[in-house]
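Hi Y.,

Following your request, here is the sequence exactly as I used it, all 78 residues.
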Amino acid sequence: MINTLVADIPNAAQGFRLLFSANPFPGYQAEMLWLKAEYGGNWYRWESKNLEGWLCPALLKYFPEAPPKFYCKAEKLQ
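Below is the corresponding structure, written out as tokens. Let me know if you'd prefer a different format.
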């Protein structure tokens, strides 16, 4: 999933910024839908790209519990 989000960012392997929110925001790239919890993390699906990915428990540092959906956008570093 991340490769698709950063596809248009030059030198993304050297770093990028990932913005995310439980609510839609201007310019978001993806809406991720919660599928299930597993191994302390959570699986999400990006419907429009037919992709799924597992997010580690660090997600819970930003949300009190895994949100049913979240929105995200990758940007180049300034």
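The first helix runs from residue 2 to 5.

Thanks again,
Q.
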